[in-house]
Amino acid sequence: MNIVVLIKQVPGSTEIKVDPKTNTLVRDGVEAIVNPFDTYAVEEAVRLKEAQGGTVTVLTMGPPQAAEALKQALSVGADRAILVSDRAFAGADTLATSFTLAAAIRKTGGADIVIAGKQTLDGDTGQVGPEVAMHLKLPFATYVKKIESADGGKLRVERLVEDGYEVLELPTPCVITVVKEINEPRLPSLRGIMAAKKAEIVTWSAADLGEDAKRFGLSGSPTQVVETYVPERVKTGEMITGTVEQQVDRLVEKLKETGVL
Ligand SMILES: Cc1cc2nc3c(=O)[nH]c(=O)nc-3n(C[C@H](O)[C@H](O)[C@H](O)COP(=O)(O)OP(=O)(O)OC[C@H]3O[C@@H](n4cnc5c(N)ncnc54)[C@H](O)[C@@H]3O)c2cc1C
Question: Which of 7, 110, 145, 170 is least enclosed by beta carbons within 10 angstroms?
């Protein structure tokens, strides 16, 4: 079974700054981690491979330093790592991102299952997995919390919904996005870390993907971020002092003023 796992490197801090001129994230000087949901995707792929054989390929679109995220995935059992990186991909919205990832998946020779995280910590749209499925014209299931079985050209999964879960059966090849309930990601072994350090990261540029260049990056992105802002925190707390009776009177007065009473 050939499994491709999509992983993204994201800022490891919630103190994210946005460049006011370009409306893009300022990534310089910010610690980068593998998007947490993607670690569950990698673990699930490695478990499937261990049970049934096959190959796990991890794929990311990002700047050269995203190779570190790929190495982390290699250290816990992925077999092959591909970095899709080119200035032509800058400014990509989710449509251009998923188009690029889909082209790279095709270039790998395709996959029986593509596994992605349910969403990222930074972009947070949850759109990339389903959009990759759309570009590859594959069926997909989101919010998968368990793979019940994966054989006979079919994948049977439990999909998390608000008040329980659904059981879905999909023909392979297909795309799924996973939630953290699906497994407990393993820690890398020392051997795994050493092997990942030496491993080759295959890097593909825009030209390598052989697609219409206009569909990459900003030129392939119909979405425009026109404004970004950090919500202003307004501190309106007031200390009520005096005797207990005075405090209660003042509180009741305040509640009436604000329309609560
Ligand atoms: C107009 C516009 C301009 C933008 N410009 C930039 C920019 O200049 N630079 C920039 O960094 N971002 C930019 N972004 C953000 C960029 O579009 C998103 O980071 C990207 O499309 C992924 O979306 P997401 O983070 O919401 O992923 P989600 O849809 O929430 O991710 C779901 C899953 O898809 C997979 N996935 C997502 N992204 C990747 C990836 N890159 N590689 C592999 N797997 C992935 C992961 O498995 C992830 O868990 C821009 C967005 C817009 C709308």
Answer: 110
In a domain, 205, yes or no: yes
Reported as a pLDDT band with limits 50, 70 and 90, residue 14 is: low
Measured distance CA(238)–CA(84) in Å, rounded:
54
Q: Note whether residue 142 is domain-resident.
A: yes
Pocket of ligand 1 (CB under 6 A): 6-8, 24-25, 35, 37-38, 41, 59-62, 90-94, 97, 101, 116-117, 119-120, 122-129, 221, 223-225
Domain assignment present for residue 246? The answer is no
End-to-end CA distance of the chain: 64
Residue with tokens 């030496």: 198
Structural domain span for residue 149: 2-220
Q: What is the CATH number of the domain that holds 39?
A: 3.40.50.620
Number of folded domains that form the chain: 1
Domain presence at residue 41: yes
